[in-house]
Structures are given as structure tokens and as C-alpha cells.
């Protein structure tokens, strides 16, 4: 059966460039840049959408999935040796299979209602019901760059939910977080300041600690503290601060100290485990101080949230970015060309991708598709 396709393209692509994996292992050994096949729109269901990806951030969950140490999905292609990593990104609607009641239009900038499996490529094919518009074709707001929109799905949304969903915070309340230099941590600090909450960020020592701390404070953090100073900071130097909420993303002793510094009856929310170590929980903290330890996983939130709740959150975040009230982290752009990719070009792209998560890297990596 022939389907009708609305498109602004001269021809519908059947293959597209991107970064793919040929198995699990070290990034420089299993990643390659080149062409992979796309599902055909000619036999697709009504409402199927072809999206030309603008950009896709490289997150820790992506690289851990490639290494085989994190259960994030990668998309299989018609070539069983090639799988596409990537769970986040934004793109432009360039073709729609007619016959559904979708309100998406050509030129709309969209992100998925859930993680995009396989976002590290120039085109993806998804049902319209799994996409949500974040910018219409005629929206000219300058701060809504490809990088800003592509990085909406994971980090700012996690920060938003952490601050909204666990404790009713009042102006002047203090939130303490480890991993304060992470993308989520930076968004927590910015949103906290915007909403009148004081965010104390714990950041490991580094050669330029004072300058880096000043940068985080200018961005929104109330204060920046080295891990070895945290206990003294809250129990001696600033013991009058009310700290009803803490965010934990490292695990091990770094998480345990938050149970000690949060105020009695406070809540510690674990949303990651960068160290891979369990948090040694003090029974005394739970019993005598009434501290609550909870977990948060954005994927689980999305499974129960309504489309309206998701849209409201995205509208808030897009509005803040457009107004210059919050800013996205700095990115190092890795360009994936549209034409044939040579072995030399592929190796160069993979080397840049492999820098993601490097200690004190300062910038996140961002795939940009020509």
C-alpha cells in the first residue's frame, strides 16, 4: 500500500550518518562514525515522523551503555553489527506520514516524550505520539539554540523534578548537593536561585578550585564546598542553616555525609551512583534524626507522568532559557558531516566522543549533525 508523505525534502533518506557501536567495550575500540540504515516511511503507519536531528549531547549513561555497564538501550539497525547509542537530542520535523490527527508540522523542533534510543545520528523515525513540540517553525527566540534544546530531556528536567517533587521548599531554605559541577548540579543551582532556594554545591578539589567555585556561584550556587569540609561547614560554621533536602549522585561515603548534614526530618534523594558504591546508611541518622532516604529515576517519572505534566515542565524550562534566566552548560561541538565519512574522519570523531566524562573536562560533548 502506498502512503502519502508530507515533506519538505527532495527525497526521503533510507540511510543516515551518525556514530554507532559494533559491540560493548572501550569507546575507541567499538565506536565508529559512518552510515546506518533507516526504517522506510513507505510502509510506515500514519503519524510516523522523520526527524532531522540538530544535535545530541553525550551523557554518562550513553558512554556507560556502550561500555556495557549501564542498561540504557541502543537501537539495532538492519545491520546486526551496528547499534546506535544516545538517549537525548532535539531535531526538526522534515516528513510526516499522513493519516493521523497529529498537530506537528514541518519545521517544528521536537524532543521525545521519553528518551530517544539512538539519537546519535542525523535522522530518526518515531511515531508522532512519542514527540513533543518545544519550538515552532516561526519561533525566532535567539537563546533557543540547538545545543540548549537538545539538552532539555535529561539534565534540566532531572533538576526540575528533584526540586519540585520531594519537599515543599520555601524561600531561604537550603539544599545541599554533591556532584555540584555536573550538568544536573548546575541546573539545580540555577533553578534554586530562580525559586529563592539556597543551593550549596559540593565539588571535588581541582587546580583551579577558587575560580571554578566563583563561576558556579555566579551561575546560581549559594556556596561551593570541598567534600572534606562539608561536615564542618554544616555542623559548625553554618549550623543554623535549615537544610530540608539533599541530592546525592555519587554514592559511597560522599552520599553518607549528606545523611549527617541534612536537618532532622530532612530528605536525601539519590538519583545516581557515579562511584558505583552503595551508600553506607547510618541507622542513627534514620532513627534518631528521622532522615528520609529516597531514590529518583527520571525514566520512572516519565512512565507515570501525563503528557500535560511533561509539557508544563518543558514550557517552564524553555521559557527560562529564552528569557536568559538559566543557561545550558558549555559544550564542545563534534561535527558529524552529511557526506561520506572517511576512516580518518571517523577516528577523529570517536576520539572526541571518548573525551566525554574526562576528569575536569569543563565542557560536555555535543554531536552536531550537518
UniProtKB/TrEMBL annotation:
SUPFAM superfamilies: GroES-like, NAD(P)-binding Rossmann-fold domains. GO terms for molecular function: enoyl-[acyl-carrier-protein] reductase (NADPH) activity. It catalyses: a 2,3-saturated acyl-[ACP] + NADP(+) = a (2E)-enoyl-[ACP] + NADPH + H(+). Residues 26-369 form the Enoyl reductase (ER) domain. Gene3D superfamilies: Medium-chain alcohol dehydrogenases, catalytic domain, NAD(P)-binding Rossmann-like Domain. Keywords: Fatty acid biosynthesis, Fatty acid metabolism, Lipid biosynthesis, Lipid metabolism, Mitochondrion, NADP, Oxidoreductase, Transit peptide. It comes from the Eukaryota. Pfam families: ADH_N, ADH_zinc_N. GO terms for cellular component: mitochondrion. GO terms for biological process: fatty acid biosynthetic process. This is enoyl-[acyl-carrier-protein] reductase. It comes from Catenaria anguillulae PL171.
Amino acid at each position: 500500500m502506498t502512503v502519502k508523505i508530507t515533506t519538505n525534502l527532495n527525497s526521503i533518506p533510507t540511510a543516515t550518518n551518525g556514530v554507532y557501536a559494533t559491540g560493548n567495550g572501550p569507546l575507541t575500540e567499538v565506536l565508529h562514525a559512518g552510515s546506518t540504515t533507516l526504517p522506510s516511511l513507505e510502509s510506515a503507519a500514519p503519524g510516523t515522523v522523520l526527524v532531522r536531528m540538530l544535535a545530541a549531547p553525550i551523557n554518562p549513561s550513553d558512554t556507560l551503555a556502550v561500555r556495557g555497564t549501564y542498561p540504557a538501550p541502543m537501537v539495532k539497525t538492519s545491520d546486526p553489527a551496528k547499534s546506535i547509542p544516545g538517549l537525548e537530542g532535539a531535531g526538526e520535523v522534515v516528513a510526516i506520514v499522513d493519516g493521523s490527527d497529529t498537530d506537528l508540522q514541518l519545521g517544528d523542533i521536537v524532543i521525545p516524550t521519553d528518551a530517544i534510543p539512538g539519537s546519535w545520528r542525523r535522522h530518526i523515525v518515531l511515531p508522532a505520539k512519542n514527540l513533543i513540540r518545544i519550538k515552532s517553525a516561526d519561533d525566532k527566540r535567539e537563546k533557543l539554540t540547538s545545543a540548549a534544546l537538545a539538552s532539555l530531556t535529561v539534565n534540566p528536567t532531572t533538576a526540575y523534578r528533584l526540586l519540585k517533587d520531594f519537599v515543599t521548599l520555601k524561600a531561604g531554605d537550603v539544599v545541599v548537593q554533591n556532584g555540584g559541577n555536573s550538568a544536573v548540579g548546575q541546573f539545580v543551582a540555577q533553578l534554586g536561585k530562580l525559586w529563592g532556594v539556597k543551593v550549596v554545591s559540593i565539588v571535588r578539589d581541582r587546580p583551579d578550585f577558587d575560580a571554578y567555585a566563583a563561576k558556579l556561584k555566579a551561575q546560581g550556587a549559594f556556596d561551593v564546598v570541598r567534600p572534606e569540609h562539608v561536615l564542618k561547614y554544616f555542623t559548625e560554621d553554618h549550623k543554623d542553616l535549615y537544610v530540608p533536602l539533599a541530592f546525592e549522585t555519587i554514592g559511597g561515603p560522599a552520599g553518607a555525609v549528606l545523611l549527617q548534614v541534612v536537618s532532622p526530618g530532612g530528605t536525601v534523594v539519590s538519583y545516581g551512583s557515579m562511584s558505583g558504591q552503595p551508600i553506607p546508611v547510618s541507622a542513627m541518622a534514620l532513627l534518631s534524626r528521622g532522615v528520609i532516604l529516597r531514590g529518583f529515576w527520571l525514566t520512572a517519572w516519565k512512565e507515570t507522568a501525563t503528557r500535560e505534566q511533561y509539557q508544563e515542565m518543558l514550557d517552564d524550562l524553555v521559557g527560562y532559557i529564552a528569557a536568559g534566566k538559566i543557561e545550558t552548560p558549555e559544550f564542545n561541538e563534534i561535527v558529524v558531516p552529511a557526506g561520506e565519512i572517511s576512516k580518518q574522519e571517523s577516528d577523529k570523531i570517536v576520539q572526541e566522543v571518548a573525551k566525554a566524562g574526562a576528569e575536569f573536562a569543563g565542557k560536555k560533548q555535543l554531536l552536531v549533525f550537518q
